[in-house]
Amino acid sequence: MTAVDPLAVPLAKQFGARTAKPLAKLGLATTGDLLRHYPRRYAEPGTLTDIASLRVGEHVTVMAEVLRSSARPTSQGRGLLQATITDGTHRLELTFFASNVHKLEWRKAQLRPGRRGLFTGTVSVYRDTLQLTQPECHLDEDEEAALEEAERPIPVYPAVAGFESWKVGKAVRAVLDPLREEDVPDPVPAHLRERDDLPTLLEALRLVHVPHDEAQWRRGRARLRYEEALVLQAELARRRARVARTEAVARPPRAGGLLDAFDARLPFTLTDGQRAVGDEIAAELAAARPMQRLLQGEVGSGKTVVALRAMLQVVDAGGQAALLAPTEVLAAQHARTLRGMLGDLADGGFLGGASDATRVALLTGSLPTAARREAMLDAASGAAGIVVGTHALLSEHVQFADLGLVVVDEQHRFGVEQRDALRAKAARTPHTLVMTATPIPRTVAMTVFGDLETSVLDQLPAGRQGITTHVVPADNPRWTDRTWQRVREEVGGGGRAYVVCPRIDGDDDAAAAARAVEEDGTDLVTDAADASDASDAAQRRPLRAVLDVAQELRARPDLAGVGIGVLHGRMAPDDKERAFADFASGAAPVLVSTTVIEVGVDVPDATVMVVLDADRFGLSQLHQLRGRLGRGTRPGLCLLVSAAEPGTDARTRLETLASTTDGFELAALDLELRHEGDVLGAAQHGRSTSLRLLRVTRDAAVIERARTDARALVEQDVDLAPWPHLRAAIEESLTGEREEFLERA
Q1: In what order do the strands lie in the sheet with 636-642?
Q2: Distance between alpha carbon 506 and the CA centroid of its chain, in Å?
Q3: Distance between CA atoms of residues 42 and 217, nearest Å
Q4: How does strand 384-389 pair with strand 320-324?
Q5: How many CB atoms lie within 10 A of CB 727?
Q6: CA 593, CA 657: separation in Å to the nearest integer?
Q7: Secondary structure of 574-614 in the HEC alphabet?
Q8: Element (H, E) at 584
Q9: Cys staple from 291: which of 234, 431, 438, 709, with CB 3.0 to 4.6 Å?
Q10: Buried residues in 668-699 as b, exposed as e (16+ CB within 10 A)
Q11: 180, exposed or middle or buried, with CB in 10 Å at 0-12, 13-18, 19+?
Q12: DSSP class of residue 4?
């Protein structure tokens, strides 16, 4: 007979449907889930005090004696029990309600006159009399035992209506109390627990759920926090080790090849950072071990040039490179940029192409059939040394002659499985370069990209212009008029103006907002966990929409005669290309757009950006948008229009952005302002849905220690065979389809 796992018992079987139903609303299905439902905080039990000193609103514990109690029905047919307790001098009323008076009989019997106990609750006042409503009662024949129980910190759990925190705690105790050490497999290897004097998992669960004092629950939490970090870092270390054990095709530099020809034509000098990172990547490409590298850098730091030089080295060595971009606009922009930088080196097989030229193919889901077929043929035949595309590259029908390098742009828009799907198109494991224009604090990089080596570009190329940022109050007509006058001045001087809106059209329902997110990758604060960051006024005001704003601007006298275009994710590819071309050429120098222009879009003449409802975007996303400016010979101006009130978190984000252009500083501040759930998201499979206690803004030392320990374990055995409980924890919580998000807000 198979033994029953005490941590896998369905809560409906453990407690019955009546208790299991509200627990299910908390995402709890089994006894193990319930034990991992940690208190969100701990309330002090309250200083034992005399009743005369109680204050309204205070959470207290009072040791007192019952004077009398009575139960009766109310006029609404409910049950009401009232009791009076005394500390020997003063009196305090207790009030209890139930659906009928019969349900209070047991409580009345408990509160018999002369019985002493501890009564815990929040002090309120009714008809000039102090009372506790629905207090917790600890009555015991052994007064000292009752006092000891009530002096402990009170765990406060996430709860739901009708199933309060104390009921959750009672359910936890019912599962926890009978457990033995052998019932609770511990993911943390024994030698690590002994080294750091960590409690076992069962001990830690008891410390956090039933602490005797603050020191105990802090010790329990520290151990559970380390466990979370270790499980995550062990999985990242295993991924890294598995790829490292595979064999890649070495792609060494070739003298006199495309890369040398490209370098000779560069109209600018590479920064020291670009050269250093380029040398690092070149050496890894030349090895028969797969490169796995994250390239992050400031907006405009020249990541594209570094990536292109890596791709050309692979092409020189007889291979191909695929660049995966998150949107069609960005993929098309990358293709244009690469072709423009390469010139005739990208015209392989065409009249006027260089003798050793290659091709840059573009493959997206909405390409016309003929163009799509041609791009797929170029990829499969090897005629295109560089293939740029969106998710369309992952199609089973897309093949490569010899895929040697996968470049993933804006990795946080893709899941790990999508990166792997593209790598699987190579005969042998290709090299991988992941790029992000979102500066990532080191702790986040360790937590999310721990399977990659990291390179940072923190220098801007010579000639990049400064950007000035101002917060503009949305409810001030004079400031609004001046904003559009400023746009007219920039356009009149030969500049281009972006106007960014959070939505596509004026449809004000939730479905339209969801469509905007899906089609444009827009992550509004209103769709994130920290929606409360926006001011109440901003919450009530309908979000500005591209189509409505474009129509308003065309009707403004101060913009008369100015071409105004629109760009958003619902447009057909040809229409997007036309809108962008008109903007770049100056035929429509004002472009009203969603955040499809957030990354990669490069128009040197763009000098001003107006972001409407700016408080509804995250700090890092606004920094990315702002980075579209200052890419030419003139400085940029970014105007953040917002109704957020001074002092709110939303206004703080905007003022922080206006105060600095340092992306790494902004990323760290953004992480502090946002909820931790934004780092990993909640799309991980298994019973463990997200990090519960680990906080990347606070726990850098814990993450670093866990990372070192995890790598040491994996170096001994990549399958973690000596530590089956750690492997089981990984399989339960982190494997399968995973989506990793860095900048949801």
Answers
A1: 467-473, 636-642, 606-611, 496-500, 590-593, 564-567
A2: 28
A3: 9
A4: parallel
A5: 20
A6: 21
A7: HHHHHHHHHHHHCCCCEEEECHHHCCCCCCCCEEEEEECCH
A8: helix 573-585
A9: 431
A10: bbbbebbebbbbbbeebeeebbebebbbbeeb
A11: exposed
A12: P
Helix-, strand-, coil-residue percentages of the chain, each rounded to 5? 45, 20, 40
Tell me the C-alpha distance between 127 and 522, whole Å.
Answer: 53
**Which is more confident, 435 or 710?**
710
Beta bridge partners of 93: 84, 131
Is residue 114 packed enough to be buried (19+ CB in 10 Å), middle (13-18) or exposed (0-12)?
A: exposed
The answer to whether residues 297 and 458 touch, using CB atoms and an 8 Å cutoff, is: yes
How crowded is the C-beta side of 131, counted as CA atoms within 13 Å? 15
- Residues 310 and 253 sit within 8 Å (Cβ to Cβ): no
Q: Report the alpha-carbon distance of residue 162 to residue 154 in Å, rounded.
A: 19
More confident of the two residues 745 and 366: 366
SS3 assignment, position 5: coil
Three-class SS state of 360: strand
Question: Around 342, how many Cα atoms within 13 Å sit in the side-chain half-sphere?
Answer: 29
Count the neighbouring beta carbons within 10 Å of the beta carbon of residue 530.
18
β pairing state of 467-473 and 636-642: parallel
Q: Per residue in 56-90, pLDDT tens? A: 888 777 878 899 999 888 878 788 999 999 888 88
d(CA 45, CA 25): 28
Q: What is the CA radius of gyration of the chain?
A: 31
pLDDT tens digits along 149-208: 657 787 888 887 768 777 888 899 999 999 999 999 999 999 999 999 999 999 999 999
Q: Is the distance from CB of 643 to CB of 537 less than 8 angstroms?
A: yes
**Whole-number average pLDDT of the chain:** 83
Contact 527, 677 (CB under 8 A): no
Distance between CA atoms of residues 324 and 282, nearest Å = 20
Structure tokens at 586: 């100056």
pLDDT, position 464: 66
Q: Do 441 and 696 form a contact (C-beta atoms < 8 A)?
A: yes
Residue in 526, 535, 532 with CA at minimum distance from that of residue 643:
535
Cα separation, 738 vs 412, whole angstroms = 11
Q: Are strands 606-611 and 403-409 parallel, antiparallel or unpaired?
A: unpaired
DSSP letters, 250-289, are -----TTSHHHHHHHH-SSPPPHHHHHHHHHHHHHHTSSS
Q: What is the largest CA-CA distance in the chain?
A: 104
Whole-angstrom Cα distance, residue 110 to residue 492? 83
The pairing of strands 403-409 and 41-43 is unpaired
Interval 643-696: pLDDT, tens: 988 888 888 889 988 988 877 777 777 766 654 444 444 332 333 345 788 887
- Residue 682 backbone dihedrals phi, psi, to 5 degrees: -125, 30
3-state SS string for 235-259: HHHHHHHHHHHCCCCCCCCCCCCHH
6-42 residues labelled b (16+ CB within 10 A) or e (exposed): bbebebbebbeeebbebbeebebbbbbbbbbbbbeeb
